[in-house]
Amino acid sequence: MSQINSKITEEIRSKVKALLSAEEIAAFVGFIDGTLPMTARPFTARSPEDADRLVFNSFCVVNPAVYLPPLLKSLEPPRRPTDPLPEGPLPKVGILATGCWSRNISIQLQENQIARERVVVLGTGCRGMVDMRKVGSIIDGREIEKAYELDDRISVSGKGFSEEILLEDVLRDNCLTCICPNPVIMDHRVGGQVPDRRVDNRFPFVDEIESKSLDKRWEWFQNEISSCIRCYACRNVCPLCYCPTCFVDDSRPQWVGKSLDPADTSIFHILRAFHCAGRCTNCGSCETVCPMGINMRVLTSKLTKDVIDLYGTEAGVDSDAPLPLTTYSETDRQDFMV
Amino acid sequence: MNKIYGLERADLEKWLSRWSEKSTVYCPDEGDGRGPASFSGWKVWAGDVLPEIKPGPAKCSIKTFYFPQPESLHTFSTASDDPDAFLLMEAERDRSANVLVGLRPCDARAVYLNGLPYSKDPYFQHRDSRTTLVGFSCLEQCSTCFCQEVGGSPFDTHRLDIAITEIKGRFIAEVLSERGEALVDGAGGAGPASDKEIAELDRLKNEAKVLKSDSGENLKAKELMALYNAGFWDSVADSCLNCGACTFLCPTCYCFDIQDEVVGNKGRRIRYWDSCMFPLYSQHASGHNPRGMKMQRVRNRFMHKLKYFPDRFGPLSCVGCGRCIRECPVNIDIREVLKDLLGVE
User: Fold this and answer.
1) Of B211, B243, B278, which closes a domain?
2) Interface touch A260/B243, C-beta < 8 Å
């Protein structure tokens, strides 16, 4: 067991237990061990006993901020849509937050999806999460039956094999280019500060695509999304996607066809990415959960790069900075106008 | 008694080549997991070498062969000067004959199970009548395989036309249907399996016959509303993202929606995959949604497979392939749900 992560796990358990016991929070969003090796299941702890199941490790690949707005809403007393909020404080929710997860919480605050006074953030530094596809390619696709994590390595074994893998070799690409491993919002700290990562090029994959000709870029995109089954796991796992009805689900009017026509799949992916422009924190959830292995994060990374170039700002890092695409300024660049 | 053949790998490849003359032969393609060829997880056999069939089911089920994305049901014209405008015409049917080689018994069982509610569906039946299934029994299972807990078996032969078992580098092919016989007749190159091989096949089958539990019958005996109102659904829903990864990869999720698509003055009525995880699936025209909450939707998916379907048709609508367990973004494990349901008093 990783000493670092088991210490964080212990601290999370005792802090959450205390918060739930004191009824300071009604629920806590964290992770428990999954049923398969190297998986962690997002979990909502609602009782002090639940807190004993919480874990933190290198397999917490889903950004828990996605659960925050609906969970807070579900804890409000039932009322009709037009009724005002009841007076007095509403139940609070605790949440575990690494650097990128906390940046998403920051954006949800800026976009008025959640209220700061109802959220209790347990912040922890993050050394990166594991990309199961990278592990799979190292062990040649064989099935892992047992795995345990050390501080810098993972030991995996299955029928007829046993391997030690360096953590650094199998971290997700978004984690390898992480600029913010420590939380930007925090009420309580668990674990220590994690040193910033030295990142020479934050957008190596974007650069690679940008260097191609227009035709080749289109070819790359079409090939990349050709296996999409439109399950919308990428959309549903994203903490930025909170629209009551997504444009792909609208039926009157219907903007996008429903089956697997490449034109429809293309529109879904392009628009999904554009809706994340200036808001994406590079948490990597979309890419991680895709059952078909589509690298759709390249699209959002391109927009992140553009927003940095055009507005000099980055999503969720500075909670006082205005949101680039929803804030009007007379000095906004207008060189796209004819 | 079924005819049983013994083949070397080269003999089997010869069979595939002979079959390719009259049909399109597909075999599993793990590929890089991407790209159009491997979208379905199946590729047209190129006439060279039969790829290694890895333990466990292929990444994607054979559902795409039965429920194409989309299926054209009708065509129509919207041209105002067309006397037949808006008259539904039967869409041209796919006339190709397919032979699928290398699927696992769970995927064939899924076709059998889907065939129960689709017994009178002309589109499904048309495709089934033109598809021959040549399955590979499982000598090795994955940790996520649980067919024996849901009524299946690594040697299940439901809906298979030919079942092949690899014994010591030789392929023992059991012909199970007339369609299977039609394939083998005249394909040549294979002699009957030896008595020793048949005895070994029987031994393996008997070994695998042991059902780990009789979940289907146990759940049928339980009161529906007790399962429906069980307390654990809330915690399943707490984790669930309500995406469609499980439904779209599941071989027995067969729900669809129908829409008209019009381009220019030509229209077609299509049937395409839908998922009970999506709010729109159950939304009424009035705007009311009887399954408006995430918990109601995730509960429906499991209740349909594990209670409503067996109550109506007999067997569970789950083949234990484990795809949903492996691909669920948040590790919702149907085996846990099954266990929780069986624990409801």
Assistant:
1) B211
2) no
